[in-house]
Amino acid sequence: MSPFNQEKILYQKKSRYNDITVTQKGSYVTLYSPEDIIQSEINIKQPLKPHLEFNRYLLFSLVFCPKPSAILVLGLGGGVVPRVLSAICPEAIVDVVEIDAEMLKAAENYFGFTTSSRLRVHLEDARAFIRRTRKEYDLIIVDTYCGLNLPQSIDNPSFFKDCGNLLSEGGILSVNLIPFDKLFMEKRLDWIKQALTNICLMRGVTRLNEVVYAGRRPVEKSNLLQNATFLKKRLPSNLKTRQLCKHLECRSGG
């Protein structure tokens, strides 16, 4: 039986890098890659209101860095996160790195994603981009899953060190992780902490995803709450930043 028997299939493509399926059920458009893993989902009636929990957790990064001028997103999917970031931070330059041109086509054709002079897509390997760029970023978001796996070029300590080297002094690195077990998660937290000594963790409730926020400076929850208040009118209504601050687990220090 097809896993999409209750959904209308809008697009299917087997590219060099991904098996991509886009479906629609009512006003919801969903991107699967592969067919049993949801990578992106939007309500086309409210495209700037992120539907998936881990998308909201990635956007929560702004509470750590409320006025970014340069943002880097590694991994496009349906383009939900970079699109919302660009709308929230219209003064910022948002660079997106995506290796798969077919993923970009799916985002443009079915998720309303469009590029501009301030929202740019680089079609190349994320690891290669990190190594070649000399640009400094205030926020770097890593969301590069292929199914349930991180690419080998990214799943190592040197990658996170290189990301840390691109961050501005007050910048934040946010990493979407799918922990298979406690050992898996602690190993990757250790890699990130080797690059950026102050980390915080948001654990998924509705999904397995956990998002790590890492920076050079210690985190004070009182400052995060102030930033959440500052951002409140600009953020999607379903991004409850003050509530999320209460669930944040922080591990600061060398």
Describe the structure.
With 254 residues, the protein is of the alpha/beta class. It has a single domain, classed as Rossmann fold. Helices cover 29% and strands 28% of the residues. It has 8 helices and 12 strands. The strands form 2 sheets. It has an 8-stranded mixed sheet, sandwiched between helices. It has a 4-stranded antiparallel sheet with strand order 1-2-3-4, covered by helices on one side. α1 packs parallel to α2 and α5 runs parallel beside α6. The radius of gyration is 17 Å and the shape is globular. The chain starts with 7 loop residues before the first strand and ends with a strand. The model has no long low-confidence stretch (mean pLDDT 93).
Low-confidence stretches: none
Give the amount of beta strand, in percent. 25-35%
Counted beta strands = 12
CATH C-level: Alpha Beta
As for the number of domains, it is 1
Give me the CATH superfamily: Vaccinia Virus protein VP39
* Rg result: 17 Å
Largest sheet composition: 8 strands, mixed
Give the terminus-to-terminus CA distance.
Answer: 52 Å
Basic shape: globular
- Tally of helical segments: 8
User: Going across the major beta sheet, what is the strand order?
Assistant: 7-6-5-8-9-11-10-12
* CATH topology name: Rossmann fold
CATH hierarchy: architecture:
3-Layer(aba) Sandwich
Give the SSE string: EEEEHEHEHEHEHEHEEHHE
